[in-house]
Write a structure and sequence with these properties.
This protein has about 120 residues and is an alpha+beta fold. It has helices spanning about 90-95, 100-120; strands spanning about 5-10, 20-30, 30-45, 50-55, 60-70, 75-85.
Length: about 120
C-alpha cells in the first residue's frame, strides 16, 4: 500500500507486538531494490497505535501510525489515519540538507499511500 515498498515479510512467526521483526523490500531511485529490517517499537491495539523503526541508514526513520474512529454529523463512522515520520539522525548538516529533500519525497509518498488505502477500503 505504500509507494516504493514491494514486499514486507515477517522474520519469525511471533504475534504482532513490540519487538516483532519484518524484512521490508524497498524500490529506491538509482539504488534499486534494497532490503531493510523493520522492528515494531510501539504497539497499543486498544488505542489503534503502532510504531516502528527501520535500519535504513540514509534516514534512520521512526514511524507512528494512529487510527481514530469518529462519527460525522450524519452518524456515519469515519476513520482518520495519522501517520508521522521522524528521524533518529542528530546532525545539523543532515537536518539542513538530506532531511529537507526527504521531507518533500516522503510527504508526496504518504499522500499517495493514504489515497491508496482510502480506495482499497472504500470499495
Amino acid at each position: 500500500w505504500f509507494p516504493g515498498v514491494t514486499v514486507e515479510d515477517p522474520i519469525d512467526n511471533s504475534k504482532l507486538g513490540v519487538g516483532k521483526l519484518y524484512y521490508e523490500y524497498l524500490s529506491l531511485p538509482v539504488i534499486g531494490v534494497t532490503k531493510v529490517t523493520l522492528e515494531i517499537t510501539k504497539y497499543k491495539p486498544r488505542k489503534h497505535i503502532i510504531g516502528y523503526e527501520t535500519d535504513l541508514d540514509m534516514i534512520m526513520p521512526r514511524y507512528e501510525i494512529k487510527c481514530e474512529e469518529k462519527a460525522d454529523d450524519a452518524g456515519k463512522l469515519k476513520t482518520r489515519v495519522i501517520w508521522k515520520m521522524y528521524t533518529r539522525k542528530r546532525s545539523y548538516l543532515y537536518y539542513g540538507t538530506v532531511l529537507q529533500v526527504m521531507r518533500v519525497i516522503m510527504k508526496d509518498r504518504a499522500a499517495s499511500a493514504l489515497l491508496q488505502l482510502f480506495y482499497k477500503f472504500a470499495s
